[in-house]
Amino acid sequence: MTTDEKLARLRAHRNNVHRYRRLLSTRLSDLEREFLSRRLSEEQTAIDALSAATRPFSPNLDGQNSSSASKVA
């Protein structure tokens, strides 16, 4: 899976999380609330898994920490 595909999936999961959180703030039956809570948890798990897989793609590729990089600039 390419980086672009991973980022697209992360965006989709993030949008789903926002949608589910928004829906959870409305009036729902217990069954609906349970379903959305479960889906929210599944989406967060998917985000965590994709984020772990994309971690090597950090903006700081040369191994310098941010404080030493800011001294150079």
Question: What can you tell me about this protein's structure?
Answer:
- Residues 61-73 have a biased composition (Polar residues).
- Residues 51-73 are annotated as: Disordered.
- By secondary structure, the protein is an all-alpha fold.
- It has a domain at 3-53.
- The chain is 74% helix and 0% strand.
- The protein is built from 3 helices and no strands.
- Helix 1 (3-24) packs antiparallel against helix 2 (30-54).
List keywords for this structure.
73 residues; 0% strand; disordered C terminus
Secondary structure layout:
Elements: H1 3-24, H2 30-54, H3 66-72
Helix pairs in contact: 1-2
Region (Disordered): 51-73
Biased composition (Polar residues): 61-73
Describe this structure in a few short sentences:
The protein has 73 residues and is mostly helical. The protein has helices spanning 3-24, 30-54, 66-72. The protein has a domain at 3-53.
Order of helices and strands: HHH
Show unreliable segments. 66-73
Strand content: under 5%
Count the strands? 0
Helix content: over 70%
The dominant shape is elongated
